[in-house]
Amino acid sequence: MKLIKKHIPLAIVVVTGLFTVASYYIPNKTSVDYLEMINKWENIVSAFAFLLGLISLFYSHFGKISRRTDGWGYSLFVFIGFAAMVVPAVLTNGRQMVDGQVTSLGWSFRSIYNPLSATMFAVLAFYIVSTAYRSFRIKSAQALVLFVAAFILILGKVPLGQIIWSRVMGWTHYGVDQVIEWIMSVPAVAGKRGIMIGIAIGTVVTSLKIIFGIERQYMGKD
């Protein structure tokens, strides 16, 4: 049992991981064919993972409805929303327009999905403002730089801010649009690239830990 639950999955991960890494550094037809095969298997696994996630979501909300827990009424909308989008998609073969006419799927997108998406982002705006308020508390030099950059960006997005900038900072002979363009193209890009480098290094380290059997969370709690 230990061999089946522990050693065989670990061996599959090690062999597959090493072959995949080696295929990127050995450019030949065999490595290309191998990567194409891996991509196909990734699509298959992703489809099954999506199906399992969907089943888990339905099971969780069905449990809330059956037990009448707090907020169980909201769980009903999971099933209602799923049916409101999937059923029209099946009936129309995924087409929103047919001969210039809006199908039931197109109506669902325009009348249900898009308004709900706009509402969700509108609610998220309040959380963003709250987070920005806490972030812009000037307690260090880094927080001061963040506040000044954000203030300039906000100032340049409204006509009144542009007027204020021209009156107060006109002597610099730099418009607020030029300053915003410099902020977005130099420090913002540098920070973004630093974050991406950190993410890439973390991904490589995590992948190596999984390949060499150091990280085994994917094998379950046992």
Features:
2 strands; extended
Distance separating the two termini: 12 Å
Query: Mean pLDDT score, rounded?
Result: 84
| Principal-axes shape call | extended
Parts with pLDDT < 50 across at least 5 consecutive residues: none
Q: What is the alpha-carbon Rg in Å?
A: 26 Å
**Topology as H/E string?**
HHHEEHHHHH
In DSSP terms (H or I, runs of 4 or more residues), the helix count works out at 8
What topology, given as strand order, has the largest sheet?
Answer: 1-2
In quaternary terms, these chains amount to: single chain
Largest sheet: 2 strands, antiparallel
What structural class results from the helix and strand content?
Answer: mainly alpha
Task: Walk me through the structure.
This protein is mainly α and 222 residues long. Among the domains are: 1-69; 72-126, no CATH class. It is 79% helix and 2% strand. It contains 8 helices and 2 strands, in the order H-H-H-E-E-H-H-H-H-H. Strands 1-2 form a two-stranded antiparallel sheet. A hairpin with a 2-residue loop joins strand 1 (97-98) and strand 2 (101-102). It is extended and about 75 Å long. The mean pLDDT is 84.
SSE inventory with pairings:
Layout: H1 2-25, H2 29-67, H3 72-91, E1 97-98, E2 101-102, H4 104-135, H5 141-156, H6 159-168, H7 176-185, H8 187-211
Antiparallel strand pairs: 1-2
Helix pairs in contact: 1-2, 1-8, 2-3, 3-4, 5-7, 7-8
